[in-house]
Amino acid sequence: MRWRVLAWVSLGVNMVLAAAWLLSARFVRVHPIGASAGPAMASASQIKTNLVLRRQLFSWREVESTDYPTYIANLRQIGCPESTVRDIIIAEVNTLFARKRAIELVTPGQQWWRSVPDTNVVQAAAEKARELDEERRALLTRLLGPNWESGDMVSLPRPSRPGVMLDGPLLGNLAPDIKQAIQDINTSSQARMQAYVEAQKRDGKNPDPVELAKLRQQTRNELARVLSPAQFEEFLLRYSQEANDLRTTFGQLQFFDPTSPEFRAVFRATDALDQQIQSLTGNDPAVDQQRRALEDQRENAIRTALGPERYQEYLLLQDPLYRKAVAIATAAGTPEAVQTIYAINQAAAAQQTSIRIDPNLTSSQKNIELKRLELDQLRANAVATGQELPPEPSPPSPPMPKRTYVLRQGDSVAVVSMIYGMPIGAIQQANPNVDLSKLKPGDALVIPPAATSSPNAP
Question: From CA 238, how far away is CA 370, in angstroms rounded?
């Protein structure tokens, strides 16, 4: 805001100078000299002059205008330096477009019910932001000329601590003084939180969740004094710790995707209970009992806020096996198969447990059985989602039984070759360690299959 202060101070100085000049002006009205007047009337000592002093009342309303060219002309008319004119117009235009961005730009932060930003909204917001910035720059170029960015405004310091985004239908329409009050409250809140955490760290302690909750409650009380109930709830839905925790919970379910009315209903039902739970300190039985009672009350509040069907889905998605079933069915384009796949996954999980604890199986046997179970589960899920299974591989052909021939008295390799119609070379290949020239009765020769014999073998 420093640049705006400098701009207005500069303007004020010029306004004072202009007003002083106007008040010191003298307007002289000279009465005409009659034709019958004598020559002596021409003497300077005898000239009659009427001096009229008009008090010029200066009002900023006479300078300001909703029409920028008129506004610029008025500033120049009262003697504003060009640098001051430029600073004032840039400030006014930037303020105008900051408001346009706050109202017209739909940012992911405005979709406080989503745990993961909508990529379409992110892209649309970026395109809209570029469009508004181009419009702003074009307006300033048209009003101040192409070199407006080379002025002192470019080098003025900007705030070093980013604030919260106050945009959207409710927060974007807040008055400037209310927005500034919210930013101041947020800055003070961050400073208190950081000071407490650093003090705990210096003492070698972890931050106490109860103390952190108290600090957040202090911030809430300050915000409630400057915002209407609807505005206050909008701020909490976007920036409170409780809303962030709720978004995390829904995000971990992956496929729940609450609508904005559902998220708002659950937040309203659980916000006060969450604050009560956070305020509990100690681990004695009475506190534990009170905490369990509040957690049960919170769960019932979620059930009421979501309704029977959505609450049942909310419960199921807390089971990793159900989330896996939803993922498989969604990827296959068959959401109706979720329950079937879930049942298959449950049965497979039970069998996995049984295999792992079976004392009669070795480690290798368990790994084999688990791998077989995994393949069976994949086939069952494929059938459930309507996918065609690949054909079963045909079993390999059984090996041909090995034939042997035991030589009798008078047999030779030539005799064996004639008996089986087998070339001697093929018989030699089937018996590489046998000297066929030294065969004797009782020796056994392996007879190869007929297909392996070569007709050209010797």
Answer: 47
Give the tokens for residue 247: 């978004």
Long-range interactions of 48-53: CB distance < 8 A, separation 24+: 51/26, 51/27, 52/27, 53/26
Cα–Cα distance measured from residue 167 to residue 374, given in angstroms and rounded to the nearest whole number: 51
| Rounded-to-10 torsion of CA 282, 285, 286, 288 | 70
pLDDT category of residue 305 using cuts at 50, 70 and 90: very high
- Asked if pLDDT for residue 314 goes beyond 70, the answer is yes
H-run or E-run covering 3:
helix 2-23
Q: How many CA atoms lie within 13 A of 40 on its CB side?
A: 1
Does pTM surpass 0.70?
no
Looking at every residue in the chain, the average pLDDT score rounds to 80
Contact (CB, 8 A) for 416 and 422: yes
Collect all residues with Cβ–Cβ distance below 8 Å to 215 and sequence separation of at least 6. Answer: 189, 192, 193, 196
The span from the CA of 191 to the CA of 187, in Å, is 6
* Domains of the chain with bracketed CATH: 2-32+43-155 (no CATH), 168-316 (no CATH), 320-384 (no CATH), 403-452 (3.10.350.10)
C-alpha distances in angstroms, 267 versus 177, 215, 255, 273?
29, 20, 19, 10
Round to whole Å and give the CA distance between 47 and 131. 68
List of residues 6+ apart from 412 with CB closer than 8 A: 439
Percent of the chain beyond pLDDT 90?
A: 31
Q: Please name the residue ranges forming H helices in 105-203.
A: 119-144, 168-171, 176-202
With the C-alpha atoms ordered 326, 331, 333, 337, is the resulting torsion angle positive or negative? negative
**Contact call for residues 85 and 151 (beta carbons, < 8 A):** no
Q: How far apart are CA 408 and CA 440, in angstroms?
A: 8
Determine the pLDDT at residue 6. 43
